[in-house]
Amino acid sequence: MVKLALAAFALLALATSVAGINILLGNDDSWASANIRAAFDELTKRGHNVLLVAPLVQNSGQGGRVILPTTNVTAPGGEFGSVPVGAPFFGHDVNNDKMWYFNGTPAAVTFFALDVIVPMVLGNATIDLIVNGPNEGENLGPLLFTLSGTMGATYAGVYKGLPAIAFSAANSTHRSFETNTGLPSDPANIAANLTANFVDALVNTTKPGDPLLPVSVGINVNFPTFGPGNPCVDPPFVLTRMTGGATVDKLFINETTGLPQMTDVSSLGVNTALNGAMFLPGETPIAAQCMTSVSLFSVDYDAPSETAEPPQQKLNVLFGHSSLVVQGM
């Protein structure tokens, strides 16, 4: 069953002949990062109408927080010197009105882009797909689903009823688009090519008029480490689930420094499968190999009925009251 599922997805990745769609492209690493600019160029080259709207500065780890600017741009300015101090809190590249920044958190960028910038730039046209990333560093498992700014920007779009995909790459170097070597082996270009391959496959296998994804559903895609000096340059896509091999933080006091540190440990809380296809492998161990994990998620956070029913039944004595003393417990 697993082999059939993986093989079916591998066929999707071979799709060609793609009709261009309207894509909102964002991230949490800033509008001037190498990965997002490479993705913009590759998706545009493939015939898509791409509108890049991303944070003014690095915003990793913001999760779904919505923080809005209260002033124009303050010191030190935009990431990698991309925007001067005193500039407006949002704006576009002087040479390309399809590349915008907004000085807010990633989720705030998604909302501002959809509600303000998209109507300004595209008029009555609508966004067909939200793409975030490729992030500088992987976002694997339920913990990073809640903590990652790239994930926050993605599920913010899903909250709006739009299909959205988060792409993350294990190559975590934070660098400017101006450092891109232009070579196919540059990690930013490998990630961009894989991102465009996935988007094209999704578009090409969707019937005209059908949504790219069901409402309330998004996708989390994680690329392994690749690039110069690494034999992994063409990692195949593999269907996965978020749980399974996932980790959480464990804190401890460093005996030498006396300061807190953290490490990753496995936990039942992030590895107990309650939803989805139970037979799929976990995304964390898959992305640790030369493979790309692909996990579908939903923003319907209610517990499954069979799991929720026992505690609901226990609490029936409380429902309809603000407090209750239960005799004989």
Structure write-up:
It is a single chain. The protein has 329 residues and is α/β, with parallel strands linked by helices. The chain is 28% helix and 21% strand. The strands form 2 sheets. It has a 9-stranded mixed β-sheet, sandwiched between helices. Strands 9-10 form a two-stranded antiparallel ribbon. Strand 1, helix 2 (34-45) and strand 2 form a beta-alpha-beta unit. The chain is globular and about 75 Å long. The N and C termini lie far apart (47 Å). The model is unreliable at 1-8 and 10-15 (pLDDT under 50).
What's the short version?
With 329 residues, this protein is α/β, with parallel strands linked by helices. The protein contains eight helices and eleven strands.
Task: Break the fold down into its secondary structure elements and pairings.
Blueprint: H1 2-12, E1 22-26, H2 34-45, E2 49-55, E3 90-93, E4 96-102, H3 106-122, E5 129-136, H4 141-147, H5 149-159, E6 164-169, H6 187-204, E7 217-223, E8 237-240, E9 247-253, E10 260-266, H7 283-287, E11 292-298, H8 305-314
Parallel strand pairs: 1-2, 1-5, 2-4, 5-6, 6-7, 8-11
Antiparallel strand pairs: 3-4, 7-11, 9-10
